[in-house]
């Protein structure tokens, strides 16, 4: 991406996708313009109510410092993408910086809050805000960026949507409508600009570990544990991270994606894992024994995997435990499971830690 100029919106928060995307594009050689409505982004309701701040983080100013310290090029411009005058000014500043604008990544989204509830309780003004930032903002930024891309006969527009715009998501009527609108805009715009060598694609992330992922007002919630718990239900066994989204943006912004346009890439970790799929045991520290398989699929009898390992190795070491031998403290007592499709039953050991 050397000699390319990229404009990325929604870059104010330290843990956000905008920051990860900007740093990834800069590392790939692009000169990056980062923007947000406020230097450190607009706080969501949880952050406002609980007074959560990110000490030492100066938002887009800290981000540009990071990029330049790493040998990249970056500047910041503040503005509201949903306001026509601001959107026009942001794009103009980005194009004037190095005389061109090649890549636009629309990340900005309205902060979540009281809109995440049943439709009867959603304030109309918050519905309007979701539509304004996601749909109107993406439209305005694209509208003002396209002339610069058409002039050079090359361009990449990447819109960050959400799986909430693809599948049914409870308590998300406003957010889902906004993100679905981004997908429709992406498809239509791709047809308008394709003859000029401009591609337009969208990414629909699923569960991604950012401050937007936690809506709870509980001040004592264990953020890391919550993210891990949610991710454990996905097929890949973990939550997504901003860097996962950034890597896909880097591909869509490259010459290698020239034959893809009007598409939506769903980055959701494969969705919810099928309950009958066994998972291999996780790696254990040295001295904790080796993972061992404690089950198999036989005649529709569902037998789980377990990795009950302690100082004395896996338990049981093989077959059925011998009388007089006790399991390591790290193992819970065996449980008998019976399949609904079979009269067979099985005993499995599970790690208690």
Multimer state: single chain
Strand sequence of the main sheet, in spatial order?
3-2-1-4-5-6-7
What is the name of the CATH architecture of the largest domain? 3-Layer(aba) Sandwich
Average residue pLDDT: 83
Features:
353 residues; alpha/beta; Rossmann fold; 7-stranded parallel beta sheet; two-stranded antiparallel sheet; 8 helices; 11 strands; 32% helix; disordered C terminus
Quick rundown:
This protein is α/β, with parallel strands linked by helices. The protein has helices at residues 17-27, 45-50, 60-69, 84-98, 124-152, 173-193, 223-231, 242-252, and strands at residues 5-8, 31-36, 74-78, 103-106, 155-160, 198-205, 264-267, 309-310, 313-314, 335-338, 345-348. It has a seven-stranded parallel sheet, sandwiched between helices.
Could you characterize the architecture of this molecule?
The protein has two domains: 5-267, NAD(P)-binding Rossmann-like Domain (Rossmann fold, 3-Layer(aba) Sandwich), CATH 3.40.50.720; 274-353, no CATH class. The chain has eight helices and eleven strands. The chain has helices at 17-27, 45-50, 60-69, 84-98, 124-152, 173-193, 223-231, 242-252; strands at 5-8, 31-36, 74-78, 103-106, 155-160, 198-205, 264-267, 309-310, 313-314, 335-338, 345-348. A seven-stranded parallel sheet has the order 3-2-1-4-5-6-7, with helices on both faces. The protein has a two-stranded antiparallel ribbon with strand order 8-9. α1 packs across α8 (242-252). The longest helix has 29 residues, at 124-152. It is globular. It starts with a strand and ends in a 5-residue tail after the last strand. Residues 284-353 have low confidence and may be disordered.
């Amino acid at each position: 991406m050397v000699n390319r100029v990229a404009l990325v919106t929604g870059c104010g928060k330290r843990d956000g996708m905008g920051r990860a995307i900007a740093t990834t594009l800069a590392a790939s050689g692009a000169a990056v313009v980062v923007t947000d409505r406020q230097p450190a982004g607009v706080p969501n309701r949880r952050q406002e109510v609980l007074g959560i701040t990110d000490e030492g983080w100066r938002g887009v100013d800290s981000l540009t410092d990071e990029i330049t310290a790493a040998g990249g090029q970056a500047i910041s411009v503040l503005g509201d993408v949903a306001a026509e005058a601001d959107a026009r000014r942001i794009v103009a500043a980005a194009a004037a910086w190095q005389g061109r604008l090649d890549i636009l990544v629309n990340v900005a989204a309205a902060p979540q809050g009281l809109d995440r509830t049943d439709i009867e309780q959603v304030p109309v003004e918050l519905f309007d805000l979701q539509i304004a930032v996601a749909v109107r903002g993406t439209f305005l930024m694209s509208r003002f960026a396209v002339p610069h891309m058409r002039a050079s006969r090359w361009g990449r527009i990447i819109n960050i949507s959400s799986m909430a715009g693809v599948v049914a998501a409870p308590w998300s009527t406003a957010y889902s409508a906004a993100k679905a609108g981004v997908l429709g805009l992406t498809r239509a715009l791709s047809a308008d600009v394709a003859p000029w060598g401009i591609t337009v694609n969208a990414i629909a992330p699923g569960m991604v570990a950012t401050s937007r992922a936690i809506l709870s007002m509980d001040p004592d919630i264990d953020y890391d544990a919550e993210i891990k718990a949610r991710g454990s239900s996905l097929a890949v066994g973990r939550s997504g991270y901003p860097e996962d989204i950034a890597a896909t943006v880097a591909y869509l912004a490259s010459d290698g994606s020239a034959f893809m346009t009007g598409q939506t890439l769903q980055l959701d970790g494969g969705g919810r894992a099928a309950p009958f799929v066994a998972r291999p045991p996780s790696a254990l520290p040295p001295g904790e024994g080796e993972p061992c398989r404690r089950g198999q699929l036989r005649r529709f009898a569902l037998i789980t995997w377990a990795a009950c390992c302690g100082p004395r190795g896996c338990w049981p070491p093989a077959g059925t435990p011998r009388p007089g031998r006790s399991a390591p403290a790290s193992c819970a007592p065996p449980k008998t499971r019976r399949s609904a499709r079979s009269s067979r039953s099985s005993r499995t050991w599970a790690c208690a830690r």
